[in-house]
Predict the structure of SAM-dependent methyltransferase.
Amino acid sequence: MPFELNRVVPWGRSYDEYVRMFDLRDEQLGQRILGCADGPAAFNVELTHRGGQIMSCDPLYGYSPTEIQARIDECFELVLRQTRNNADGFVWSETIPSVEALGEIRRQAMDAFLKDLPIGRSAGRYVAAELPDLPFRDGAFDLALCSHFLFPYDTLGLDFHRQSVASLLRVAQEVRIFPLLTLDRRLSPYLNQVVQMAESIGCTADVVPTNYEFQRGANRMLVLRNVVAR
Protein backbone atom coordinates (compact mmCIF):
# COMPACT_ATOMS: atom_id res chain seq x y z
CA MET A 1 0.00 0.00 0.00
CA PRO A 2 1.47 3.41 -0.96
CA PHE A 3 2.50 5.63 1.93
CA GLU A 4 -0.13 8.23 2.85
CA LEU A 5 0.53 10.86 5.50
CA ASN A 6 -3.04 10.79 6.79
CA ARG A 7 -2.67 7.09 7.66
CA VAL A 8 0.33 7.45 9.97
CA VAL A 9 0.84 8.88 13.44
CA PRO A 10 4.15 10.82 13.48
CA TRP A 11 5.80 10.42 16.88
CA GLY A 12 9.45 11.41 17.26
CA ARG A 13 11.85 10.27 19.94
CA SER A 14 14.80 12.18 21.37
CA TYR A 15 18.53 11.73 20.88
CA ASP A 16 18.91 10.50 24.47
CA GLU A 17 16.23 7.88 23.92
CA TYR A 18 18.02 6.57 20.83
CA VAL A 19 21.28 6.32 22.73
CA ARG A 20 19.61 4.32 25.49
CA MET A 21 17.35 2.19 23.27
CA PHE A 22 20.23 1.04 21.14
CA ASP A 23 22.96 1.11 23.79
CA LEU A 24 25.04 3.45 21.64
CA ARG A 25 28.56 4.13 22.86
CA ASP A 26 31.14 6.53 21.43
CA GLU A 27 32.36 3.77 19.13
CA GLN A 28 28.97 3.36 17.46
CA LEU A 29 28.20 7.08 17.43
CA GLY A 30 31.35 7.63 15.38
CA GLN A 31 30.28 5.17 12.69
CA ARG A 32 28.34 5.65 9.46
CA ILE A 33 24.76 5.28 10.71
CA LEU A 34 21.47 4.70 8.92
CA GLY A 35 18.31 5.48 10.86
CA CYS A 36 15.53 3.52 9.18
CA ALA A 37 11.87 4.50 9.66
CA ASP A 38 13.04 7.32 11.92
CA GLY A 39 9.95 9.47 11.45
CA PRO A 40 10.18 12.92 13.09
CA ALA A 41 12.90 11.91 15.57
CA ALA A 42 15.61 14.28 16.79
CA PHE A 43 18.45 11.74 16.57
CA ASN A 44 19.67 12.86 13.15
CA VAL A 45 19.78 16.57 13.93
CA GLU A 46 21.48 16.11 17.31
CA LEU A 47 24.06 13.59 16.12
CA THR A 48 24.86 15.83 13.14
CA HIS A 49 25.43 18.75 15.54
CA ARG A 50 27.81 16.49 17.47
CA GLY A 51 29.80 15.74 14.33
CA GLY A 52 28.36 12.31 13.53
CA GLN A 53 27.72 10.73 10.13
CA ILE A 54 24.06 9.82 9.77
CA MET A 55 21.39 9.38 7.14
CA SER A 56 17.72 8.80 7.97
CA CYS A 57 15.16 7.27 5.64
CA ASP A 58 11.39 7.34 5.90
CA PRO A 59 8.63 7.98 3.35
CA LEU A 60 7.54 10.80 5.67
CA TYR A 61 10.42 12.87 4.32
CA GLY A 62 8.67 13.23 0.98
CA TYR A 63 6.31 15.71 2.63
CA SER A 64 6.94 19.34 3.56
CA PRO A 65 7.56 20.46 7.15
CA THR A 66 4.20 22.26 7.04
CA GLU A 67 2.35 19.09 6.03
CA ILE A 68 4.13 17.00 8.66
CA GLN A 69 3.51 19.62 11.35
CA ALA A 70 -0.20 19.63 10.53
CA ARG A 71 -0.38 15.85 10.83
CA ILE A 72 1.52 15.93 14.14
CA ASP A 73 -0.93 18.50 15.47
CA GLU A 74 -3.87 16.32 14.39
CA CYS A 75 -2.52 13.28 16.23
CA PHE A 76 -0.74 14.73 19.25
CA GLU A 77 -3.54 14.98 21.82
CA LEU A 78 -5.02 11.66 20.67
CA VAL A 79 -1.73 9.87 21.35
CA LEU A 80 -1.41 11.46 24.78
CA ARG A 81 -5.00 10.54 25.62
CA GLN A 82 -4.40 6.93 24.58
CA THR A 83 -1.22 6.89 26.66
CA ARG A 84 -3.09 8.26 29.67
CA ASN A 85 -5.81 5.63 29.25
CA ASN A 86 -3.15 2.89 29.19
CA ALA A 87 -0.77 4.39 31.74
CA ASP A 88 -0.13 1.06 33.47
CA GLY A 89 1.47 -0.22 30.26
CA PHE A 90 4.37 2.22 30.62
CA VAL A 91 7.27 2.67 33.02
CA TRP A 92 7.19 6.17 34.51
CA SER A 93 10.52 7.37 35.89
CA GLU A 94 12.61 10.48 36.50
CA THR A 95 13.32 10.55 32.75
CA ILE A 96 9.63 10.48 31.76
CA PRO A 97 7.63 11.02 34.97
CA SER A 98 4.19 11.75 33.49
CA VAL A 99 2.08 11.94 30.36
CA GLU A 100 2.58 15.71 30.35
CA ALA A 101 6.37 15.29 30.48
CA LEU A 102 6.16 12.75 27.66
CA GLY A 103 4.30 15.28 25.55
CA GLU A 104 6.97 17.92 26.17
CA ILE A 105 9.81 15.52 25.28
CA ARG A 106 8.08 14.41 22.08
CA ARG A 107 7.23 17.98 21.05
CA GLN A 108 10.81 19.11 21.55
CA ALA A 109 12.12 16.21 19.49
CA MET A 110 9.65 16.75 16.66
CA ASP A 111 10.14 20.54 16.63
CA ALA A 112 13.90 20.02 16.30
CA PHE A 113 13.33 17.60 13.43
CA LEU A 114 10.94 19.94 11.59
CA LYS A 115 13.39 22.83 11.86
CA ASP A 116 16.22 20.66 10.55
CA LEU A 117 14.32 18.86 7.76
CA PRO A 118 14.83 21.40 4.90
CA ILE A 119 18.55 21.73 5.67
CA GLY A 120 19.05 18.02 6.22
CA ARG A 121 17.13 17.06 3.10
CA SER A 122 19.30 19.36 0.99
CA ALA A 123 22.39 17.82 2.56
CA GLY A 124 21.13 14.31 1.81
CA ARG A 125 20.64 13.40 5.47
CA TYR A 126 16.90 12.74 5.07
CA VAL A 127 15.85 10.41 2.26
CA ALA A 128 12.25 9.61 1.33
CA ALA A 129 12.53 5.82 1.20
CA GLU A 130 10.98 2.87 2.97
CA LEU A 131 11.50 -0.76 3.79
CA PRO A 132 11.99 -3.24 2.33
CA ASP A 133 13.34 -1.43 -0.76
CA LEU A 134 16.27 0.66 0.46
CA PRO A 135 17.99 2.73 -2.29
CA PHE A 136 21.50 2.41 -0.86
CA ARG A 137 24.51 0.49 -2.08
CA ASP A 138 25.66 -2.70 -0.40
CA GLY A 139 27.64 -2.02 2.77
CA ALA A 140 27.01 1.73 2.66
CA PHE A 141 26.71 1.93 6.46
CA ASP A 142 28.44 0.50 9.49
CA LEU A 143 25.29 0.48 11.60
CA ALA A 144 21.57 0.55 10.82
CA LEU A 145 19.02 1.36 13.53
CA CYS A 146 15.29 0.67 13.31
CA SER A 147 13.15 2.10 16.10
CA HIS A 148 9.49 1.24 16.78
CA PHE A 149 8.61 -0.07 13.33
CA LEU A 150 9.67 -3.66 12.79
CA PHE A 151 8.09 -6.06 15.33
CA PRO A 152 5.55 -3.66 16.95
CA TYR A 153 3.34 -3.83 13.85
CA ASP A 154 2.66 -7.53 13.35
CA THR A 155 0.05 -6.63 10.71
CA LEU A 156 2.96 -5.99 8.33
CA GLY A 157 3.41 -9.76 8.03
CA LEU A 158 6.30 -12.18 8.23
CA ASP A 159 7.49 -11.76 4.63
CA PHE A 160 7.75 -8.01 5.07
CA HIS A 161 9.83 -8.47 8.22
CA ARG A 162 12.15 -10.96 6.56
CA GLN A 163 12.62 -8.82 3.46
CA SER A 164 13.17 -5.69 5.51
CA VAL A 165 15.80 -7.26 7.76
CA ALA A 166 17.57 -8.77 4.75
CA SER A 167 17.63 -5.32 3.15
CA LEU A 168 19.04 -3.72 6.30
CA LEU A 169 21.76 -6.40 6.45
CA ARG A 170 22.59 -5.71 2.82
CA VAL A 171 23.31 -2.04 3.41
CA ALA A 172 24.87 -2.21 6.91
CA GLN A 173 27.45 -4.32 8.67
CA GLU A 174 25.38 -4.34 11.87
CA VAL A 175 21.65 -3.88 12.46
CA ARG A 176 19.93 -3.03 15.76
CA ILE A 177 16.15 -3.26 16.08
CA PHE A 178 14.11 -2.02 19.07
CA PRO A 179 11.71 -2.99 20.58
CA LEU A 180 10.86 -6.68 20.17
CA LEU A 181 7.27 -6.40 21.44
CA THR A 182 4.04 -5.78 19.58
CA LEU A 183 1.92 -2.76 20.48
CA ASP A 184 -0.06 -4.91 22.93
CA ARG A 185 3.18 -5.91 24.72
CA ARG A 186 3.50 -9.44 23.34
CA LEU A 187 6.81 -10.77 22.07
CA SER A 188 6.66 -10.44 18.29
CA PRO A 189 5.58 -13.69 16.62
CA TYR A 190 8.14 -12.95 13.89
CA LEU A 191 11.24 -12.69 16.04
CA ASN A 192 12.34 -16.31 15.83
CA GLN A 193 11.72 -16.53 12.09
CA VAL A 194 13.69 -13.33 11.47
CA VAL A 195 16.58 -14.69 13.54
CA GLN A 196 16.51 -17.94 11.56
CA MET A 197 16.51 -16.04 8.28
CA ALA A 198 19.47 -13.89 9.34
CA GLU A 199 21.46 -16.91 10.45
CA SER A 200 20.67 -18.71 7.19
CA ILE A 201 22.45 -15.97 5.23
CA GLY A 202 25.52 -16.09 7.46
CA CYS A 203 24.75 -13.46 10.06
CA THR A 204 24.85 -13.63 13.83
CA ALA A 205 21.74 -12.73 15.83
CA ASP A 206 21.56 -11.84 19.51
CA VAL A 207 18.81 -10.53 21.76
CA VAL A 208 20.48 -7.96 24.01
CA PRO A 209 19.12 -6.07 27.06
CA THR A 210 19.16 -2.28 26.88
CA ASN A 211 19.14 0.48 29.48
CA TYR A 212 15.75 1.72 28.29
CA GLU A 213 12.19 0.69 29.12
CA PHE A 214 9.20 2.94 28.52
CA GLN A 215 6.70 0.48 27.09
CA ARG A 216 6.53 -2.00 29.95
CA GLY A 217 8.58 -5.09 29.12
CA ALA A 218 10.24 -3.49 26.08
CA ASN A 219 13.85 -3.52 27.25
CA ARG A 220 15.65 -5.70 24.71
CA MET A 221 16.90 -5.19 21.17
CA LEU A 222 17.86 -7.53 18.35
CA VAL A 223 21.48 -7.17 17.21
CA LEU A 224 22.35 -8.68 13.81
CA ARG A 225 25.86 -8.73 12.36
CA ASN A 226 27.33 -9.71 9.05
CA VAL A 227 30.10 -12.15 9.94
CA VAL A 228 32.24 -11.27 6.93
CA ALA A 229 33.00 -7.56 6.58
CA ARG A 230 31.95 -6.00 3.28
